[in-house]
Amino acid sequence: MIVSGTVDGLHYEQHGGPIAGREVVLMSSGLGGSGVFWAPQMDALTAKYPVVLYDHRGTGRSARELPSPYAVQDMADDMVKVMNALGLERAHVVGHAAGGNAGLALALSHPDRLGKLVVVNGWSRPDPHIRRCFDTRIHLLNDSGVQAYVHAQPIFLYPATWLSENHARLQLEEPHHVAGFPRREVMLARIQALLDFDIDEDLPRIPHPVLVSASSDDMLVPVTCSQRLADRLPNAELQVAPWGGHGFTVTDPETFNAALLGFLEGDG
Questions:
Q1: Predicted confidence band of residue 248 (pLDDT cuts 50, 70, 90)
Q2: DSSP, residue by residue, 100-140
Q3: pTM for the full model?
Q4: What per-residue confidence (pLDDT) applies to 25?
Q5: 25-28 and 51-54: which strand pairing?
Q6: What gap in Å lies between CA 41 and CA 52, rounded to an integer?
Q7: Strand, helix or coil at 153?
Q8: Nearest 5°: phi and psi at 33?
């Protein structure tokens, strides 16, 4: 049974049965913001844990307006609002890119609300290559529009071989992504929040167990960003998948899911 609700404009769903007395996993997606990003993880996770999905503010079924100014810390604060709505004192957080960065911000601002943290293809400070990729996406959105932005997006997310093999699937999905795309100003504000994110000097203050998960062929976020996180966080372990791109939770879910469950079930 799926329990859904809305808090302060944030749409959320609870999967995997009742949460009382159980460890709960809160999933926070990347720039796209939609909770459905985590579909390849749901069967594996809900067999063992209640799982909470939500759509980031400005995306999906959540309110399409953002506060101004907008920062990654606002994303972290929204996680707390979802947890409060469900009566959760704390949760394990699994975040991809923007969601992982928000999890790091949550660890600093609300340490008592976080159990374990999984950061997938995240970073702690601005990186020149990430900035170059986001600058390109900004120009696509501003100069060529939503259709061009959405059409190019898979290039940043997936390996070339996977793109070729899944061309028909991507063609079918593209109109849906265009139809559900946030307003241009919202997407630009979300990108700017990620470009402004810098907690590198604060990493040693995060004591929580952290799985830093990355793909060695990530086109958008260099694997060195994840290596830096693992090196500077006091209680982190690093998982590097050999293939799968920025979205390797989608292209190779078996590898990611095995590491994820092993980490959540471990003693750390």
A1: very high
A2: HHHHHHHHHH-GGGEEEEEEES--SS--HHHHHHHHHHHHI
A3: 0.98
A4: 98
A5: parallel
A6: 12
A7: helix
A8: 85, -15
pLDDT value, residue 40: 98
Q: What is the pLDDT of residue 267?
A: 84
Amino acid at 250: V
Contact by Cβ (8 Å): 46, 16: yes
The total of other beta-carbon atoms located within 10 Å of residue 94's CB is 29
**HSE value, Cβ hemisphere, 13 Å, CA-based, for 107:** 29
DSSP states of 193-241 as a string?
HHHH---GGGGGG--S-EEEEEETT-SSS-HHHHHHHHHHSTTEEEEEE
Which of 242-266 are b and which e, b meaning 16 or more Cβ less than 10 Å from the residue's Cβ?
A: eebbbbbbbbbbebbbebbbebbee
With a cut of 80, say whether residue 196 has pLDDT above it. Answer: yes
Q: Which two tokens stand for residue 58?
A: 């400005």
Q: What structural domains does the chain harbor?
A: 3-265 (3.40.50.1820)
- Using CB atoms within 10 A of its CB, is residue 31 exposed (0-12), middle (13-18) or buried (19+)? buried
Q: What mean pLDDT comes out for the span 238-259?
A: 98
Residue keyed to tokens 């990611």: 256
- Residue 120 CA to residue 102 CA, distance in Å, equals 11
Average pLDDT value for residue range 230-238: 98
pLDDT of residue 218: 98
Sign of CA dihedral 247, 102, 146, 216: negative
pLDDT at 268 over 80: no
Angle at 111 between CA 264 and CA 58, to 5 degrees: 85
The one-character DSSP state at 31 is T
